[in-house]
Amino acid sequence: MNSLRGKLFLILVAATGLIWLAATCWTYVGARREVESVLDARLQEAALMVLSLASSNGVGASQDGGDSRQTAELLNYERQLSCQIWSLDGRLVARSSGAPNESLSDRRAGFSERLINGETWRIFTAEDAAKGVRVLVGDRIGLRDHFVAEILKGILTPMGLVVPLLGFLIWASLNRGLRPLRGLAEELTRRSADDMRPIATGRVPTEIQPVIGSLNALFARVKDALRHERDLTAFAAHELRTPLAGLRTQAQIAMAAPDEATRSAALRQILVGVDRTTRLVRQLLAIAKLDAAPEAISANQVSIGGVIEEVIEALPMSERAIPITVDPALKNIMVTANRDTLLLAIRNLHENAARHMLQPGAIRWSMEEKSEALAVYIDDEGPGIPQEEMALVTNRFFRGRYKSPLGSGLGLSIVELALRASGARLVLQNRKDACGLRAQIIWKIAPGGAPG
Amino acid sequence: MRILVVEDDPVLSDGLKVGLGLYGATLDIVANCADGDAALAADEFDALVLDLMLPDGSGLDLLTALRSRGDRTPVLLLTALDEVADRIRGLDAGADDYLGKPFDLEELAARVRAISRRNEGRAAPQASYNGVTLNPARLTVDVGEACIGLSRREFAVLAALMDRPGTVLSKSDLEAKLYGWQEEIESNTVEVHVHKLRAKIGRTKIETLRGIGYRMRPVAP
Q1: Domain spanning A211-286: CATH 1.10.287.130
Q2: CATH number for B156
Q3: Is the CB of residue A246 less than 8 Å away from at least one CB of chain B?
Q4: Among candidates B11, B51, B104 on the partner chain, residue whose Cβ is nearest the Cβ of A273
Q5: How far is A382 from chain B (nearest CA, A)?
Q6: A293 alpha-carbon distance from chain centroid
Q7: Searching chain A, which residue's CA lies closest to the CA of residue B53?
Q8: So where are chain A's domains?
Q9: pTM (2 decimals)?
Q10: Nearest residue of B to residue A271 by CA position?
Q11: What does DSSP say about strands A92-95 and A81-87: parallel, antiparallel, or unpaired?
Q12: What ipTM is given for this predicted complex?
């Protein structure tokens, strides 16, 4: 069963039942002992009384003539007790009615038990050697059991009546005690899927507070994630619709152009717009991919120099004119990363450097190996990044003061995400030795381990 | 008509400059809020076309600041954020019209004409004075029965003069209507345009006040 209420109910009922059972056993044992001792005392008392009566009758007690009187004396005990008076020489002097003819006990004195005619008897034997008589008084054990059973019945009957009431009370208190939980469950069920308001913690029992606290924290996180997602979608819509608006406008100009110069200018602008939109879509796809599965990409040993070479070889013709120097030592630097992800980061950094280049200038890839970190640098000779924009440039869709016409505002966000997935981090700073930006890719080296 | 465009996308702002230029407007383009503020403080425009998401802030802030200064320049918001709530927020901040991207160039030109016309207190689409009627959509002018095509500079000069027919506009006033900041102003161009205009619409329509400027000749009493 998976209901908390059902479980608690079963546990409570079982525990109460067990306690009652134990109490009943205890009562049974106690009552039994008490009945035994009371009835034993009665047997003993009766035997001694009969013995004393026998003695007051003198020797006549041993004669048959006294029988009728004695028998009458013993009548009171008829139902419960049996009495026999034996002479010491083995004659049955007298017996109560209902008492068997054979001797109740072989014992000379004290208590004993014996099976007679299928019934167990408890017998007390008292002997008076001076009078020459032995008195045996006994009762049936079955009778004693009956007494104990009566006592138990007296206890168990009211209990039996109380049990349903108790069950009802337990059920009702459970219902009342668990009401806050049910209230919480109802509130959660009632909520619409996108309702992320925190649950009120006002009159909630302390046991549920941590649950509600965790839930509210979760709501807050989901709300943040949702808002972030919506912001991103809004930005993406804006960033896609703006170049589309540009393309449409330029197309209309090309159609309505009064002269050839205007038309070809518009067509050239359309090409620029298409290039930019293509790049933007590519960047959006890249960022969506990195967002979706930052952890799940497989990593292996990658040569940084090799990746840089691949990026440079794939450069479009228009960017081939920029002189590039690559430190040959980079070729031998291996890091643990996913090659495609690292390539994405390095390509975006290289494109950034190339796009912001002031003519004439060069791009330089270099590196530095320190004891605790491996740093790969790319230096450009562009305008750098204004200090007040430095913290913002990795924000999605942020386009700073010195933006390139092709920029999507996503490049550095992609670099940051891709480097994080490759175990590195991105540090941007304006060059101190010249005008331009130095982007640093930094891998922390674990003591004794390889970077990445 | 002189229009300021605040838009940071280079392809789109080039398209607006050329495209609205085809409809006879003179455009100045800036790419961020700060430059937009500076331009609005320095010059007077017949309309402002404003993007909302700009690199240094929201166009709404620029609009709010503009209106709180008491500036009545007609504003058309041009943005990709065109949910109903965004539109309401834009209009409530003081915009005169709203157009979502991507848009039709002709529609944009028509809307800009409409908001600037309303700002001049005119409801009729064609400005008309003393037998001269402007058709801004086609860059033509009706004089009596004749429909005459004008170049966009000529049209701009005539439209400026017809905005407030009684007032005199100096040569530099007209130059301001004709040229954006980046354009080289050739000397004598205003005189040349006025000369050509007179040749097309009739010698008597435009009056020269020597040393002061030009105006539409008042209707003879």
Answers
A1: yes
A2: 1.10.10.10
A3: yes
A4: B11
A5: 19
A6: 27
A7: A238
A8: 4-165, 211-286, 297-444
A9: 0.57
A10: B11
A11: antiparallel
A12: 0.77
